[in-house]
Design brief:
Blueprint lengths: L3 E7 L2 E9 L4 E3 L2 E2 H4 L3 H13 L6 E8 L3 H19 L4 H7 L29
Parallel strand pairs: 3-5
Antiparallel strand pairs: 1-2, 2-5, 3-4
Helix pairs in contact: 2-3
């Protein structure tokens, strides 16, 4: 099997991944998964598509990620892994879509409006 690549985005985070056959090693920005995401919850989020298809020990995954915070980055990696798994085996798409792994989350930060301190927050109203 040749190297399969895919892209995942969430908020400002962009994850480019390269999947090849291997032993289940996930490397993010030249660091191990547990070192890059110390939180077990974020490690679980990254591995969700693989565990859904029982493929945790089948593929080696190399990730280049930049932008955003750690939550957005982990969800970007999850989307990229799901897209790569569908490239490898298109029949898996229905199972991954049912879990919501194939959908790009469109939510992002709302811009700040002029004359306001934040996007929706107004300055305190003073009647007198």
């Amino acid at each position: 099997m040749e190297v399969i690549n895919a892209l995942g985005r969430r908020k400002r985070a962009v994850a480019r991944i390269f999947v090849s056959e291997g032993t289940g090693k996930i490397t993010i920005n030249k660091r191990d998964l547990a070192e890059y995401f110390p939180s077990t919850i974020l490690q679980y989020v990254v591995k969700q598509p693989l565990s859904k298809l029982d493929a945790t020990e089948k593929y080696d995954i190399k990730v280049n990620i930049y932008g955003g915070g750690f939550t957005g980055q982990s969800q970007a990696v999850r989307l990229a892994i799901a897209r790569a798994l569908v490239k490898i085996n298109p029949e898996d798409k229905a199972a991954l879509r049912a879990e919501g792994f194939m959908t790009r989350d469109p939510r992002s930060v709302e811009r700040k409006k002029p004359g306001q301190p934040k996007a929706r927050r107004r300055f305190q109203f003073s009647k007198r």
